[in-house]
Amino acid sequence: MTTLTTRTGRRVRAIRLGPRSWLALTLVSAVGVAGFGWPFLAPPDSTLNAHAQDAPWLFAGLLVLLVAVVAATISESGLGPKAVAMLGVLAATGAALRPIGAGTAGLEPMFFLMVLSGRVLGPGFGFVLGSVTMFASALLTGGVGPWLPFQMLAMGWFTMGAGFLPGADRLRGRPEVWMLALYGFLAAFAYGTVMNMAGWPFMSALASNISFSAEASLPANLARFVAYCLATSLGWDLGRALVTVALTLTLGTALLKALRRATRRAAFEAPVTFEDTPE
């Protein structure tokens, strides 16, 4: 008779980042940085500025690269049915949480779930989860448009970052929760700022002192961008950050334990061996 046994380590990750995944993720991130930051990277006399209104559609090609990252990650890690199931459950939960508050004053509870999931399941799973959750929520809320690839990439970065935080195997309890709350607070502002960069160059109808100017110098456009963020999104970013902190501090300990328990039981990466036993 042959029995199936598994061996697991202390830390289990649903999706690991292998060489092909790192390469694809690096490519996506490089194009993403260009897509988000081209107003600051292109000189005033660049021909790119002449196509400012076309840029959202040009950079919407990021979606293809995002799909490539997901495909490379899944194929390289040998994603099993248990990991797919957890990915589906967490993405569906995050997508369902996003409409709560409809973004009013930044009340978006999905962000705290992304932070905790990325922490427990690692950066590879985190990036996939963040991008898939944003895509699913866009389908749920009808928010599909040229901005969607930017949202998917930004949320992938946001969730992946939690997987790179220190003390993954040792830090537990309230210190870990406070660290995640601090990360969520800062990352919520970072997410809002990055998304502002995606939309700011195309707000030509705004007052001239805060809108992007293709003829202005880099310092002048930086000042305009800061003024734009303060005038349009600071309240939403602050609300998102405070909600993320509050939910992390109140529900973080219980949810981290639940996620770790589910991950251990699923044993996503447990090596399978066959041992001969007496009849």
Question: Helices and strands in order, then pairings?
Answer:
Elements: E1 2-6, H1 19-41, H2 55-58, H3 62-77, H4 81-97, H5 110-141, H6 148-163, H7 174-199, H8 218-232, H9 234-266, E2 272-276
Helix pairs in contact: 1-3, 1-7, 4-5, 5-6, 5-7, 5-9, 6-7, 7-9
Structure description:
There is one protein chain. This protein has a two-stranded antiparallel ribbon. The chain is globular. The chain has helices at residues 19-41, 55-58, 62-77, 81-97, 110-141, 148-163, 174-199, 218-232, 234-266; strands at residues 2-6, 272-276. The N and C termini lie close together (6 Å). The protein is mainly α. Helix 4 packs across helix 5 (110-141), helix 5 (110-141) packs antiparallel against helix 6 (148-163) and helix 6 packs antiparallel against helix 7. Helix content is 65%, strand content 4%.
List keywords for this structure.
two-stranded antiparallel sheet; 4% strand
The largest beta-sheet arranges its strands as 1-2
Question: Taking all residues together, what is the mean pLDDT?
Answer: 76
Q: Give the H and E element order.
A: EHHHHHHHHHE
Note the gap between the termini. 6 Å
Helix content: 55-70%
Number of DSSP-assigned strands: 2
Major sheet summary line: 2 strands, antiparallel
Given the helix and strand composition, which structural class is it? mainly alpha
Q: How many individual helices?
A: 9
Radius of gyration: 21 Å
Uncertain segments are: 1-10, 271-277
Strand content: under 5%
Task: Assign an overall shape.
Answer: globular
